[in-house]
C-alpha cells in the first residue's frame, strides 16, 4: 500500500486537471517546492497509480501527462478523497508535538527524517529543525535523542520517559486547536486537556481511571483540586499504557516501606492499582503503587484520610509552619504591611505548603490553569511573592519552586491584601458645614462599612494633623498633600463617587504615594561605575562575566512594567548594577542587577526598590536622570543621614553661587542660569527636577518683591544642602512683581525637605530684612565682586 503525503495528493489532483503536457517546473509554484522534490514525488505517484491502471506519460521537451479513462478517473478521485481525509495539516507546534509523541510512545523504535518529511509534507531541513527543538524539550527530563544511520529514537530511563509523556499532555492542554469534538467529557476536565489525553490514551481508559479516582474522593469525602486531579489521572494513564507494554520502572527502591505501607493513603493507592490490574488483566508492581501514593501525599489528599501517619512527619508538621511564616515575613518586609496578624493567610498557606513541600521532595510538577489570569490581574502581587519565594529557597536550601506553584501562593497573599485593604482608617475633609459633613460620613459608612472614619476636618486643620495612623483621605475640596493618598468626591457622595472609590480600591491594592523614602542599602552598595544608560541585558551580563568564570543565572522580578530586579545568588560577590534604558514608547525602564548571597541584604534592597517604585515622585525623577552623577546623588540624598540644624545667611551663601554678569534675557533663562551654578557647586542633585519645583512655587504666588528684586523658591527633595544662588542681570527682565516692574537682581532659594519649615522661614526673614533696607539694596545693585555681595548678606558689610 502506497502512502501519499499531502503534497503528493495535491500533485496528483493538479495532474488530473491538465489535458496537455506540462513541465515539472509548472507545478513548483502551486506546490511551493523544488523541481528536485517533485521528481522524487513522481516516482512514488507512479507506483500509486499502478493499481488504477493509470500511466504517467513523460514526453521529452514537453513534460508529463496522465493517461486516464473515465472509470479509473472516478476511482482515483474517490481514493484521493479518502486519503486526503486521513491526512492532517499541522502547524509547526502541532507537528513538533506529534513528533515528540511518536518518539516517546515508541521509544524503543527508530524513525527517520525522510519518513517524517513525507508524513508531514515538509522538507527534511524543517524536520531537522524540529528534531533540534525535540532534543531541547526532552533534555529537561534527562532524555536524549540517539541519531544513527537507521534513524532517531529517544534514549533514557523509563521513569523519565513517563515524566516527559505527562508533561506532553499538559503542554498540549494549552493549545488552541478546537477541531476534535469529544463524545464524552468528564466534568473535571476542560476540552483542551481531555483532547490532549485522548491524543495519547483511549477514551475508555480515561473515563475508567477517572471514575476510580472519583470513587476514592467520594469514599473519603474529599475532592482534589483540578491541577492535582489532572496530574494524578495523567500519571495513572501513563502507568497503565506503559505497564501494558511491559515497560515498568526498574531498579526502583521504596524507602521506609514498612512504615508507609500501613498509611491510609498508601492503602488507597494499592486499592486503585489493584482495580486497574484486575480490570485490564495486567500486573502493575508495587513500585507503581508507591508512585500513585506520592501523588496522593503531594495533593493534600492524605489530610482527609483517617489517622494516617506520614513518613516525613517532621517536614510536614514543623518545617511547613516555619517555612510559611518565613514566606509571609519576607512578603511583609517588602510591602511594609503586617500580614502575620491575619490568621486566615497563615492557616491557608500552611495547608497549601505542606503538600507543596512533598511535591518538591518527589519532584512532582503541577500546572496552574489560572496562571495567565494571575499574571494579567495580579502581576505585582505575583512578583512580590516570587521575590519572597526566591529568598526562602535560598535561605532554606529548597528545590526550585515553579511559577505555577508561586501563582497559587499569590492567591493567598492577594486575598490577605484585599482583606487588609477593606479595613481602612479614613479622614474626611469637608468645607461645607457640619450637617453636610455628617451626611457624607453617613453615606461613606453605608457604602464602605469596613472603614473606620477617624476624623472629620477642614483643609486647614488637616495640615496640623499627624497622619501616620491614616490610610486614606476622602475630601470634597482639592488638597495639596503628599503624605497620604486622597480621593476627591462630591459633598453628597454620588453613585459615581462610590463606583470610582470601589474601582480605585480594587485596582490599587498597593497605593502609590509620594511619602519620603530612605535608601540606605542601595546607596551603600551601588557604585558610580555600575550605573549604565541604555545597556541591554546582554551588555550587563557581558560586563559581569568579563574575566570571571562565574556562571550567572538571574531570576527576574518585575515591579510594574518598567522597574525590574534581576537576582543572582553568588556566594563570593556583593555588587549591584543599575541600568536605565529608554524604550520606544518614550518611557524609561529601570533594571537592578543584584549578585550576592546574603538573603537579608537582598531583602533590604528589594524593600527599598519596591518603595522606590511605589513613590511616584522618586520614580519620576529617576526616569529623567541622564547622568550617572544625578542617579548617585539621588540615592545619596535619600540615605537618611542628614542632620537638621538651624542656620543663617552666612552658612548658605558661597562665592561660587554668586554671578554679577548674568547672560539671562528672560525669567526662564535666569532661573536656569542660577540653577546651573547650584548644580555645578554640587548643591542640588538634578537640575530639571529642581527647576520644576521652583516653577511649582511660582504658580502659588508672586516672587518679584519690587524695587528690581525677585526671590524665587526651590523647596525640593533634590536639594542636597540648603543654599542661595544670587545673580544680577545685565539688563532688567520681565517678572511677576508686586510693583509690576522688571527685575535685575535675583536670589534663588534652594531648600532641602528638612529645612522647608523653620529654617526656610528663618532664611527668608533674614533676606527680607536686608532687602527692606534701601541703602543695602542700592549697594547690592552697585557691587562689583562676589565678595562684596557675600559681605552684605553675611552681615559684615552693614
From TrEMBL:
PTS EIIA type-2 domain span: 651-796
Domain of life (superkingdom): Bacteria
PRD domain sequence ranges: 200-306, 315-423
Pfam assignment, any one: PTS_IIB
Residues covered by the PTS EIIB type-2 domain: 424-513
Entry keyword annotation includes Iron-sulfur: no
Keywords: Activator, Phosphoprotein, Phosphotransferase system, Repeat, Sugar transport, Transcription, Transcription regulation, Transferase, Transport
InterPro entries in UniProt: BglG_antiterminators, Mga_HTH, PRD, PRD_sf, PTrfase/Anion_transptr, PTS_EIIA_type-2_dom, PTS_EIIB-like_sf, PTS_EIIB_2
Matching NCBIfam families: fruA
PANTHER family for this protein: CRYPTIC BETA-GLUCOSIDE BGL OPERON ANTITERMINATOR, TRANSCRIPTIONAL REGULATOR MTLR
Name of this chain's protein: Transcription antitermination protein BlgG
Amino acid at each position: 500500500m502506497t502512502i501519499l503525503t499531502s503534497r503528493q495528493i495535491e500533485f496528483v489532483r493538479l495532474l488530473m486537471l491538465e489535458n496537455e503536457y506540462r513541465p515539472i517546473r509548472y507545478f513548483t509554484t502551486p506546490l511551493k517546492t523544488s523541481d528536485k522534490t517533485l521528481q522524487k514525488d513522481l516516482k512514488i505517484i507512479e507506483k500509486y497509480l499502478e493499481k488504477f491502471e493509470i500511466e504517467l506519460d513523460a514526453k521529452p521537451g514537453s513534460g508529463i501527462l496522465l493517461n486516464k479513462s473515465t472509470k479509473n478517473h472516478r476511482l482515483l478521485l474517490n481514493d484521493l478523497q479518502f486519503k486526503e481525509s486521513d491526512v492532517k495539516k499541522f502547524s509547526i507546534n502541532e507537528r513538533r508535538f506529534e513528533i515528540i509523541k511518536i518518539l516517546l510512545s515508541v521509544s524503543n523504535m527508530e524513525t527517520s527524517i525522510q519518513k517524517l518529511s513525507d508524513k508531514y509534507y515538509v522538507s527534511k531541513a524543517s524536520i531537522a529543525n524540529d528534531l533540534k527543538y525535540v532534543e531541547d524539550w526532552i533534555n529537561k527530563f534527562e532524555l536524549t535523542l540517539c541519531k544513527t544511520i537507521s534513524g532517531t529514537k529517544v534514549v533514557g530511563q523509563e521513569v523519565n520517559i513517563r515524566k516527559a509523556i505527562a508533561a506532553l499532555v499538559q503542554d498540549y492542554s494549552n493549545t488552541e486547536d478546537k477541531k476534535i469534538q469529544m463524545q464524552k467529557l468528564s466534568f473535571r476536565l476542560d476540552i483542551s486537556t481531555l483532547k490532549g489525553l485522548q491524543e495519547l490514551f483511549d477514551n475508555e481508559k480515561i473515563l475508567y481511571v477517572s471514575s476510580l479516582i472519583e470513587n476514592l474522593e467520594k469514599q473519603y469525602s474529599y475532592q482534589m483540586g483540578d491541577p492535582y486531579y489532572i496530574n494524578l489521572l495523567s500519571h495513572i494513564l501513563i502507568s497503565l499504557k506503559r505497564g501494558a507494554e511491559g515497560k515498568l520502572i526498574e531498579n526502583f527502591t521504596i524507602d521506609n516501606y514498612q512504615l508507609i505501607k500501613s498509611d491510609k493513603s498508601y492503602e488507597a493507592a494499592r486499592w486503585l492499582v489493584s482495580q486497574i490490574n484486575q480490570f485490564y488483566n495486567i500486573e502493575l508492581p508495587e513500585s507503581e503503587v508507591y508512585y500513585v501514593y506520592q501523588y496522593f501525599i503531594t495533593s493534600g489528599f492524605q489530610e482527609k484520610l483517617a489517622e494516617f501517619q506520614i513518613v516525613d512527619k517532621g517536614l510536614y508538621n514543623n518545617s511547613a509552619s516555619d517555612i510559611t511564616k518565613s514566606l509571609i515575613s519576607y512578603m511583609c518586609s517588602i510591602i511594609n504591611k503586617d500580614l502575620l496578624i491575619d490568621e486566615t493567610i497563615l492557616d491557608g498557606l500552611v495547608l497549601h505548603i505542606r503538600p507543596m513541600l512533598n511535591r518538591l521532595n518527589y519532584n512532582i510538577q503541577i500546572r496552574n490553569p489560572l496562571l495567565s489570569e494571575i499574571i494579567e490581574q495580579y502581576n505585582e502581587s505575583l512578583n512580590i511573592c516570587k521575590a519572597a519565594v526566591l529568598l526562602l529557597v535560598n535561605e532554606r536550601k529548597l528545590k526550585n519552586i515553579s511559577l505555577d506553584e508561586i501563582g497559587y501562593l499569590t492567591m493567598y497573599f492577594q486575598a490577605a491584601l484585599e482583606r487588609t485593604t477593606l479595613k481602612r482608617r479614613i479622614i474626611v475633609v469637608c468645607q461645607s458645614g457640619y450637617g453636610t459633613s455628617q451626611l457624607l460620613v453617613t453615606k461613606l459608612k453605608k457604602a464602605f462599612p469596613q472603614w473606620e472614619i477617624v476624623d472629620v476636618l477642614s483643609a486647614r486643620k488637616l495640615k496640623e494633623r499627624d497622619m501616620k495612623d491614616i490610610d486614606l483621605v476622602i475630601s470634597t475640596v482639592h488638597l495639596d498633600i503628599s503624605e497620604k493618598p486622597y480621593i476627591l468626591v462630591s459633598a453628597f457622595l454620588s453613585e459615581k463617587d462610590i463606583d470610582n472609590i470601589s474601582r480605585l480600591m480594587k485596582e490599587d491594592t498597593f497605593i502609590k504615594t509620594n511619602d519620603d523614602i530612605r535608601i540606605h542599602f542601595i546607596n551603600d552598595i551601588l557604585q558610580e561605575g555600575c550605573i549604565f544608560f541604555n545597556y541591554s541585558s546582554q551588555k550587563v551580563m557581558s560586563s559581569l562575566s568579563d574575566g570571571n568564570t562565574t556562571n550567572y543565572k538571574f531570576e527576574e522580578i518585575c515591579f510594574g512594567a518598567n522597574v525590574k530586579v534581576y537576582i543572582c545568588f553568588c556566594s563570593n560577590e556583593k555588587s549591584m548594577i543599575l541600568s536605565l534604558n529608554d524604550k520606544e514608547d518614550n518611557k524609561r525602564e529601570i533594571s537592578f542587577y543584584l549578585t550576592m548571597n546574603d538573603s537579608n541584604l537582598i531583602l533590604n534592597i528589594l524593600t527599598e526598590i519596591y518603595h522606590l517604585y511605589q513613590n511616584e515622585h522618586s520614580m519620576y525623577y529617576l526616569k529623567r536622570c541622564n547622568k550617572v552623577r544625578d542617579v548617585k546623588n539621588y540615592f545619596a540624598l535619600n540615605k537618611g543621614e542628614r542632620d537638621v540644624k538651624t542656620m543663617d545667611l552666612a552658612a548658605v551663601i558661597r562665592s561660587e553661587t554668586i554671578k554679577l554678569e548674568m547672560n539671562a534675557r528672560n525669567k526662564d533663562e535666569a532661573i536656569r542660569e542660577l540653577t546651573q551654578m547650584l548644580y555645578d557647586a554640587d548643591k542640588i542633585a538634578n537640575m530639571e527636577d529642581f527647576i520644576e519645583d521652583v516653577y511649582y512655587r511660582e504658580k502659588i504666588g508672586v516672587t518679584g518683591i519690587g524695587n528690581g528684586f525677585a526671590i524665587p523658591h526651590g523647596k525640593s527633595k533634590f536639594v542636597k544642602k540648603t543654599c542661595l544662588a544670587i545673580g544680577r542681570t545685565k539688563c532688567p527682565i520681565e517678572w511677576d512683581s508686586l510693583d509690576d516692574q522688571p527685575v535685575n537682581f535675583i536670589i534663588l532659594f534652594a531648600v532641602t525637605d528638612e529645612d522647608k519649615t523653620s529654617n526656610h522661614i528663618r532664611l527668608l526673614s533674614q533676606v527680607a530684612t536686608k532687602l527692606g533696607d534701601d541703602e543695602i539694596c542700592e549697594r547690592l545693585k552697585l557691587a562689583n565682586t562676589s565678595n562684596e555681595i557675600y559681605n552684605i548678606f553675611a552681615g559684615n558689610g552693614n
